[in-house]
Give the backbone structure.
Amino acid sequence: MNKVKQKAPGRPRRTSTGVNLRAIGERIKELRAQRSQKDFAQLMRVSQAQLSKYELGQSAPPLGFLTALAKDAGKSVDWILTGKG
């Protein structure tokens, strides 16, 4: 009989570089505003599931996504990453 492995603890919300993925996700969600995740994901050319991971801080958004988001929102990539600027 196979033993069921225990679930591993969740991923840390900070990368080893000290970047707060959860805070970045909150800013992405703020910039999405009232648009649905599905519609915004299509606009940003990512899947809805991937956008959700970015917003929850479970995955770091790539530079291409960040630059497209900054252009769409009229914000800087620096602001999306740090909340400053």
The longest helix spans residues 21-32.
